[in-house]
Amino acid sequence: MALLRLHRHPGALFMNRPNSLEHFWMPFSANRDFKQDPRLIVSAEGMYYTSEDGRQIMDATAGLWCVNAGHRDPRITAALLRQIDSLDYAPSFNFSHPAAFELSARIAAQFPEPMNRVFYTNSGSESVDSALKIALAYHAARKDGTRTRLIGRERGYHGAGFGGISVGGIVRNRMKFGTLLTGVDHLRHTHDLARNAFSRGTPEHGAELADDLERLVALHDASTIAAVIVEPMAGSAGVLLPPKGYLQRLRAICDKYGILLIFDEVITAFGRLGTATAAEYFGVTPDIICCAKGLTSGVIPMGAVVVRDEIYETITGTSETPIELFHGYTYSAHPMATAAALGALDAYEQDDMYGNVSAVALPWEEMLHGLRDCPNVIDIRNLGLVGAIELAPRDGAPGARGTEAMRRAWDLGAMIRVTGDIIALSPPLIIQPDQIAELGELLRQVLSSLR
Ligand SMILES: Cc1ncc(COP(=O)(O)O)c(C=O)c1O
């Protein structure tokens, strides 16, 4: 079968399996289930992983929305080899290395004006925490220190730190972890199957949901609100797309009340929608952008917070202490991470990978919406190189159908991601039309086989 390619002799089955699976406590995973029936990956190239039993598995999720350049891009590998040969580590507290500055200029050039200042982290979660702290520090620097309230959105995902889960809106990520940050409130989410099911691209209905910020301003008063953080396109909660005009309206309300607007672009920055940022795609410039993942194409952990000049200038210009922001990480701008990021940006540019997203966006949309007739499908969504197939939950077992789909896809030769009963798809930006067709055929088999 074309979709199930064996690379090694069947005798090689399971030769890569470790002696014990007990000691690794896997994050956000069904540990007990996985250890009964592990899905182990031993190598990768371009659009494909190789499983421990020698099968080629199409990476339909770019790992975890991060391997944007495809696996083992030679430019990233070469940059890392050069780097380890010259400088392994340099601190960023009061010292630095040239590549950190070069990378910052390259990022600033890709991000909307006037977002030109870059603060480095090691992950999306740290980018979110850093962005929230920068927002508070900015208002304090302006002697507007009553602005401490942070506004997130229901169903938002902003990583796993206490800041991120406080402004985040996914119940299971919050419910076991105490009272979280105080002074946080949430906008209503924008997911509306009744009005928007099977929309192609951004949905028509729901711009007025941005006015929910007016409700929170009326409740708390603008003078207590520091920032609003949203994913311009929510990924982890199951690909929830912004209704047409929603982000513009949110920007206008933030402007009206002097509230900072933070876009969490951990999954959208670096090409996911065919542009460097979702801010550019939607034509809405926030005050702060969080990024990570695609920054290094997932090869080395790295995140960044990119801010408007005025935010940097205010915090540094008004500081009464030599250190202007008491915040940072041992590994901020780690030389290996900056090398990987420079390699990734080279790869994106040299092969016009963002351009490829725009070029394949239509076949991608057609493939996804062609699955509408499959059993249990209640919605299909797409934007750029992102897709979602929402399945009706099985009676009494929400999430079971989604998990079954993930396992079935792995058996047939694709890595897909599920949130509950929503299948989320986000392949590397290098995907070609024949691979989209291959994925479509596989997904049809998966969907048709579900109970
Ligand atoms: C929008 C968003 N913010 C933050 C994060 C957290 O990133 P990390 O897992 O690198 O901490 C993610 C991860 O998926 C994300 O999608």
From TrEMBL:
One Pfam family from the record: Aminotran_3
A molecular-function term among this protein's GO annotations: adenosylmethionine-8-amino-7-oxononanoate transaminase activity
Domain of life: Bacteria
Keywords, comma-separated and alphabetical: Aminotransferase, Pyridoxal phosphate, Pyruvate, Transferase
GO biological process, one term: biotin biosynthetic process
Signal peptide bounds: none
E.C. number: 2.6.1.18
Known cofactor(s): pyridoxal 5'-phosphate
Family membership: Belongs to the class-III pyridoxal-phosphate-dependent aminotransferase family.
Name recorded for this polypeptide: Beta alanine-pyruvate transaminase
Organism: Sagittula stellata (strain ATCC 700073 / DSM 11524 / E-37)
Record lineage: Bacteria, Pseudomonadati, Pseudomonadota, Alphaproteobacteria, Rhodobacterales
